[in-house]
Design brief:
CATH architecture of the largest domain: Sandwich
Strand order of the largest sheet: 1-7-6-3
Radius of gyration: 81 Å
Number of helices: 7
Shape: rod-shaped
Largest sheet: 4 strands, mixed
CATH superfamily of the largest domain: Cadherins
CATH topology of the largest domain: Immunoglobulin-like
Oligomer: single chain
Number of domains: 6
Number of strands: 49
Structural class: mainly beta
CATH class of the largest domain: Mainly Beta
Strand content: 35-45%
């Protein structure tokens, strides 16, 4: 057996060995022996030049293809020689040359490593493959410089080398999310060959970072009563983690009061805080809102910040009027300066908007006195008179100094309590009453009426009758009259008789129910009106009830001689006492006449012998009342020669008539004068 060693990848025709020399045979002999080369393989990698005895490479020899990773690679040849037949075994060792660099399965390697991976963690990398053997095969790996990983090459018993990345320094995705390394595989050839693969390491996020607000605290200023939905502030928090670990949700912290949660709301996605309730400066001037930002990692991480919201006051509160002390009833005789009410005012606004001024109408008898800040007293400014104004609605106006100012009006109802400061007053200073005589008992003659502007007991009136000064002491008005004590009706206790009393005067006194009582008087004049209740009375000639007065005249009496005169009086007055005389019956109606008003009886013609000697005359005396009353008198006129005696008798009778009372004479004279007129 002959052995040769040749490197792989020799060119065609390359010298392998000289078989003639190695066999110690002449080249010519080899040629004559019909030398043949037989190969064990399908391919003829070698050929022999029979002329020279040189074995040459006839095809490309790739050791890696022939032998793979076997450390030694052989090709076997058989040489056949005839005459005699001999076989020679030739073994050609194919020596490896460094014709293959190490090759990684891929030029790019991607790793995903959790950023919280423990130090010392190992991450295998698919090894490079080098079909060469021996020193020409893969010998080592080199890792590009970096801060986090080292390279560890793990050798197996079969000589394989496997690279591992070893974590030497903690990863932080937020600092560096991707690491780019270059792993170089190098063989031991000369010169060495190498190949590279690019390792891309993606650091997988761990929820190791809490959200961070761009400011530790926020400030905002809002006007009170801002409309709902007003943006307060937009928060901004960031989380350097990624995915759910960096997805932030905003919320109001549980440390906030329930009242604050009703006023403010936050959008969990955008972090916008908006007004959802009423902002009232008077309830709170500053709101401090605690906000938390949470990521969606597991476990959740959160961060807090505070938002300070200052509320700017606006003039949205009208002043308040509080009655510290108030008396709704005030005596009308209260002197000026009497305190009616003590008023406390306040305004929940601040600054000038919280300063309050009060006033009342100058037309009222009241004024305000400022006692000190926020307190006023309502005083009477003048004398009061309940009878003039009994009730006041005092409007206290409180205004602040805001722009525009707000005001509040409080009405204080004040009732004046009555004092008995007014005497009763009659509707008339005096009363004149005409009363027909013979009035029925109990009839109301007049109603006197008085008024008292005071109230209640002070205005309860009582009437009484008093004798008027200068009145006839014999005429006691209480004898004839009575008065109702409460309604002032004056009634007759007796019927009046004009012929006895024609006039009556008296005082009516009224007193109120005050203490002390106040009084007043009025004078009442009662005039008795005559009624035609008296018939005329004949005073001359006097005659009995069943007899007639006789008169004598001479037959020679010539007309219009006065025979006699009927004299009558009527106790009534006025028209009821106007009398008329009428001749209603006569023996000879044409002989005598009676004067209508004077009652004179005269002869109307001369007497004749045929006339009777006695004449009976019936004279009726009638007054002018309605209905009229009358009295009849009968006279007998005798015609005799002794006429003068008759006249004398007449004169005598007339003389007797001179004994009439004086008042009767006055009445007669009055009647004559009236008749004349």
């Amino acid at each position: 057996q002959i052995r040769y060693s040749i490197p792989e990848e020799l060119t065609r025709g390359a010298f392998v060995g000289n078989i003639a020399k190695d066999l110690g045979t002449d080249v010519a002999k080899l040629a004559a022996a019909n030398l043949q080369v037989l190969s064990d393989s399908d391919s003829q990698y070698f050929s022999v030049n029979v002329n020279t005895g040189v074995i040459m490479v006839s095809e490309r020899i790739d050791r890696e293809q022939l032998c793979g990773q076997n450390p030694r690679c052989f090709l076997h040849l058989k040489l056949a020689i005839e005459n005699p037949v001999e076989f020679y075994r030739i073994e050609v060792e194919i020596l490896d040359i460094n014709d293959n660099p190490p090759e990684f399965p891929s030029d790019e390697v991607s790793l995903r490593i959790y950023e919280l991976a423990s130090l010392g963690a190992r991450f295998p990398i698919q090894p490079a493959q080098d079909p060469d053997v021996g020193t020409n095969t893969l010998q080592t790996y080199h890792l590009s410089a970096n801060e986090n990983f080292n390279l560890n090459v793990k050798a197996r018993t079969d000589g394989g080398k496997f690279p591992e990345l070893v974590l030497e320094r903690a990863l932080d995705r937020e600092l560096r999310a991707f690491h780019h390394l270059v792993l170089t595989a190098e063989d031991g050839g000369s010169p060495p060959q190498s190949s590279k693969t690019h390792i891309t390491i993606q650091v997988l996020d761990a929820n190791d970072n809490h959200p961070v607000f761009d400011r530790p605290s926020y400030g905002a200023r809002l006007v009170e009563n801002s409309p709902l939905g007003t943006l307060v502030v937009k928060l901004n928090a960031t989380d350097v983690d990624e995915g759910p670990n960096g997805d932030i949700r905003y919320s109001l912290s549980s440390h906030n009061s329930a009242a604050l949660r009703q006023i403010f709301a936050i959008d969990e996605q955008t972090g916008e805080i908006r007004v959802q309730g009423n902002l009232d400066f008077e309830e709170a001037t500053v709101y401090e809102i605690e906000v938390e930002a949470k990521d969606m990692g597991s476990p959740t991480m959160e961060e807090h910040c505070s938002v300070v919201v200052e509320i700017t006051d606006v003039n949205d509160n009208a002043p308040e009027v509080i009655l510290t002390s108030f008396s709704s009833s005030l005596s009308e005789d209260a002197p000026p300066g009497t305190v009616v009410a003590v008023i406390h005012v306040r305004d929940r606004d601040s600054g000038d908007q919280g300063k309050v001024q009060c006033h009342v109408s100058p037309d009222l008898p009241f004024q305000l006195r400022k006692d000190y800040e926020h307190q006023y007293s309502l005083l009477t400014s003048t004398r009061l008179d309940r009878e003039h104004v009994a009730y006041y609605n005092v409007t206290v106006s409180a205004s602040d100094l805001g722009s525009p100012p707000l005001s509040r009006h409080t009405i204080l109802p004040i009732t004046l309590a009555d004092v008995n400061d007014n005497a009763p007053q009659f509707e008339q200073a005096s009363y004149e009453v005409l009363v027909a005589e013979n009035n029925p008992v109990g009839s109301v003659l007049v109603t006197v009426s008085a008024a008292d502007p005071d109230s209640e007991q002070n205005s309860r009136l009582s009437y009484s009758i008093l004798r008027a000064g200068g009145t006839d002491p014999g005429l006691d008005p209480t004898r004839y009259l009575s008065i109702h004590p409460t309604n002032g009706q004056v009634s007759a206790k007796l019927p009046f008789d004009y012929e006895q009393t024609t006039y009556l005067q008296f005082h009516v006194e009224v007193s109120d129910g005050g203490s002390p009582a106040l009084r007043n008087r009025t004078l009442v004049h009662v005039f008795i009106v005559d009624q035609n209740d008296n018939a005329p009375r004949v005073h001359f000639p006097r005659a009995g009830e069943d007899s007639a007065a006789q008169f004598r005249i001479s037959p020679s009496t010539a007309p219009p001689a006065l025979i006699t005169k009927v004299v009558a009086i009527d106790a009534d007055s006025g028209r009821n006492a106007w009398l008329s005389y009428n001749l209603v019956e006569a023996t000879d109606p044409g002989l005598f006449s009676v004067a209508l008003r004077s009652g004179e009886i005269r002869i109307t013609r001369a007497l004749q012998e045929t006339d009777p000697s006695a004449h009976e005359l019936v004279v009726v005396v009638r007054d002018a009342g309605d209905p009229p009353l009358s009295t009849a008198v009968t006279l007998v006129v005798l015609v005799e020669e002794k006429g003068p005696e008759a006249l004398q008798g007449s004169e005598a009778r007339a003389a007797d008539g001179g004994g009439l009372p004086t008042i009767t004479l006055y009445l007669i004279v009055s009647l004559v004068l009236i008749s004349t007129v």
